[in-house]
Amino acid sequence: MTQDFIKPPVEIRYAKELEALKSTDNGRKPENWVLSPKAVRTFILGSSKPIKYNGEEITVKKKFFGNDPLVERCIITLAGSRGLMLVGEPGTAKTMLSELLSAAISGVSTNTVQGTAGTTEDMIKYSWNYALLLAKGPVKEALVPSPLYVGMSKGIITRFEEITRTPAEIQDSLISVMSDKVLNIPELEDDGLLFARPGFNIIGTANIRDKGVNEMSSALKRRFNFETVEPVKDVRLEKQIIISEVEQNAVSDKIGMPVDTDIAELLAVTYHELREGVTESGVKIDKPSAVMSTAEAVSVFYQTMSNAWYYESDTMSFRDLTENLSNAVCKDTKDDLERLRAYFNTVVKFKAEKYGGSWKEFYEARKYLK
Ligand SMILES: Nc1ncnc2c1ncn2[C@@H]1O[C@H](COP(=O)(O)OP(=O)(O)OP(=O)(O)O)[C@@H](O)[C@H]1O
Ligand SMILES: [Mg+2]
User: Fold this and answer.
1) Domain chopping of the chain, boundaries
2) For every one of its 370 residues, what pLDDT tens digit does the chain have, with 9 covering 90 and above?
3) Rounded distance, CA 364 to CA 287, Å?
4) Ligand 1 center to residue 44 CA distance, Å?
5) With contact defined as beta carbons under 8 Å apart, do 65 and 100 qualify?
């Protein structure tokens, strides 16, 4: 199955790890959880020793980097009665973390509402199959459950992506569900109350760059524990994320080219310095207004590597790298192009003189910034 989809869900991609963890899990477990909080933590943060399972040694990989206590707090929040709200800059792995948590806790990561400006109350609660409704009237059979409904009735997690892109009055339909853990279905006369089973909870994600978080009502905010997911602060960690994500993408797209770790480092440093607005040696620089996320760095790298692979060149080209970088950085405003040029003319120039190698080639490709 892993081979048949572009992006299999977490529970399929890491099925072996999850099974191995389950087979050795003897930790304390909230009702209806597939794994104990300790095993969920190991699934997300990795295990120091391989686990023996079915005659194999399974190593549980670390999947979320940079803030272990945040992961631990998220797990404990989900064992309680308040929801979990992950907020932060784009590309900080909020969605990835919410998928990992859902897969490990409930066994599924796909029970999801995607918040958009067009999300309606029906999409959050339930809707009707009109053919059945006309034929049989408002009976349970005619009801089309939403992911929230499914989460409550099965006792699993419902993910609500980009919650603050949904109009505030629609978001507020979650309030009673979150405080009373019951959903009212007035159309069903005898069966009009759906009580949530243990194991149900909500993980919301919200992007602080989108007009949004502030528009969440304070009544709803009070029903969530907020966790801010920060961009990765450590350049070495960022390099490691770039390498491991690119490797995974390459395996799934059958790109048989090794990841150039020098270029991964160069890109990690570039993204880090431009995001923070300060160089490794402490010199202040002008930050682009665009989001300089790790996810963007991964995609710039992967785009450049795919180019080399499909046009059958042995190495990644610095021209492609620079062009992809400038396309990624300059999508919001032309001023960012000037900031990127200034970065090349000062910082990249300095590194080219000091370190040579990839930095020199990167500097020489500055003419392709456009
Ligand atoms: N701390 C991190 N640990 C591991 N991977 C990370 C980390 N930060 C970013 N990434 C990488 O960034 C990718 C993007 O993550 P994701 O789509 O979950 O971000 P997001 O915060 O939901 O972004 P958006 O706000 O745009 O929806 C991840 O798949 C992963 O490759
Ligand atoms: Mg997201």
Assistant:
1) 2-229, 235-368
2) 455 788 899 999 999 999 999 999 999 999 999 999 999 999 999 998 999 998 999 999 999 998 999 999 999 999 999 999 999 999 999 999 999 999 999 999 999 999 988 889 999 999 999 999 999 999 999 999 999 999 999 999 999 999 999 988 889 999 989 999 999 999 998 788 999 999 999 999 998 877 655 578 899 999 999 999 999 999 999 999 999 999 999 998 999 999 999 999 999 999 999 999 999 889 999 999 988 999 999 999 999 999 999 999 989 999 999 999 999 999 888 899 999 999 999 999 999 999 999 999 999 999 999 8
3) 22
4) 14
5) no
Nearest of 259, 270, 250, 245 to residue 316 by alpha carbon: 259
- Ligand 1, CB within 6 Å, residue ranges: 64-66, 90-96, 205, 207, 232, 241, 245, 294-295, 298
Name residues with Cβ closer than 5 Å to ligand 2, which is an ion.
Answer: 95
CA of 295 relative to ligand 1 center, distance in Å: 6
Ligand nearest to the CA of 88: 1
Query: Is 275 in a helix, a strand, or coil?
Result: helix
**CATH number of 2-229, picked from 3.40.50.300, 2.40.128.590, 2.102.10.10, 1.10.555.10:** 3.40.50.300
Q: What angle do CA 352, 272, 366 make, to 5 degrees?
A: 40
First to last CA, the chain: 42
Q: Which atom of ligand 1 is nearest to the CA of 245?
A: 31
Q: Which ligand has an atom closest to residue 232 CA?
A: 1
